[in-house]
Amino acid sequence: VSLTKTELKDIQSLLTKKGRKLKKSFLAEGVRLLEEAARHRMRPEAIYYSESALSERAKFLVERFQKLAVSAEPIPLRQLESLADTESTQGILAVFKEPSTALAELYRPAYRRILLCEHISDPGNLGTLIRSALAFEFEMLILTGNSAEPYSPKVVRSSAGAIFGLPVAVCENGELLAFVTLHRMFLVAADIAGQAASVQLRQIPRDQPLLLAVGSESHGLSPEMLAAATARVRIEHATSVESLNAAVAGSILMKEVYELTK
Amino acid sequence: VSLTKTELKDIQSLLTKKGRKLKKSFLAEGVRLLEEAARHRMRPEAIYYSESALSERAKFLVERFQKLAVSAEPIPLRQLESLADTESTQGILAVFKEPSTALAELYRPAYRRILLCEHISDPGNLGTLIRSALAFEFEMLILTGNSAEPYSPKVVRSSAGAIFGLPVAVCENGELLAFVTLHRMFLVAADIAGQAASVQLRQIPRDQPLLLAVGSESHGLSPEMLAAATARVRIEHATSVESLNAAVAGSILMKEVYELTK
Question: Which residue from A minimizes the CA distance to B238?
Fold first, then answer.
């Protein structure tokens, strides 16, 4: 069955920031991403697929969603391709409701490790950080400043599906700093002028939740975030490069925190 | 002075793989990348700039290259933009001769740490690995399989200029394996089915050069590379994600090697 022009346009609008904001929904495409969604028990609003383009693995996935009573519509490949953000579609995509990004709503007092990204505007870097955060048992991500949109197709894809397993809050620095004070968080700031991470991170108290803050590649964290930090840490490396890629730096620090506090 | 149509086409061709192969040259644009080139004493064949678009920092850079007797041509902004791979040009770009990528020619017996990338096809990931390699004092990069082209604009940009400081060899697996045997290299393979990196890497011998091998995200290293490995290591993380981003995984392993062998 073909989608009507209006239906098609409605879904296509989710490829844009404006459309996502309006519909409070987002898209994810491809077998691997949707398998991760299923694994994290994220139920799509609807899936769209083209029988002719489905692998065995993709067929199995369609059945799996059908058993969960997800609306599953077979559509012509030509239509599916017009909804895809990538060049090769794998014949399946899904629409999800955007989870809340309200900090107060997402936060749980049991959280011990939270990642803060300030001005991480590259979607590939943000997606990679989400993936590493889930791998290193960070329980939540907070985005401030001019960061990429967490549910844009490129972030979703770069997260390799980890976006389905990690609560993501978006807020202003003011709200964040009040939150840090309220919950007595130990705020660790990544800072190339900071002290050696390998030494500093050993001082992390066990009885305080940790907030690890990573800033933009070109400018680092804002002065107000640095001022609020309990510790400022840098990753030791040779001076032949000025700094590491932001996703790499954040991931290395998360790994160290994971090993020291697990 | 405007470039002639032919001159313009000649430089534009460097934005394509075919053109780079033919001319054995590559492009780098923007102040930061070219400052890194200067810092690593890489002398461009020529620079092109548009006076009106230059910042003070960019003007200083133009003078610096002029003092090195580099051919520096002022061209109209419209022409410069047609040569740029990015949307905002910063008013300056340079043409460099592609260094040799022959393994035998680049290798020095004094090298202690070499990174091997097999099938790293994403240019962003490859550039990021080049940047981390230089940061963690790896002295050379070897590319095998279906890896991205090291001197493509996207790799050059993602390396944040580290490409100017790291010799990059490109070869076939056969040549590489002969090289490993000849130089008695300790070959460490990143492998999600391997043993804990934190334990395994402590066994690295001090008197043997180390080759760290990282494979593609979807398929890992090839069976022949795994078979040739002296040790197979995995980065410990939660099972909530299947694997880390390839650039993150490679960077984490390089950092551990750097700390254990420095």
Answer: A135
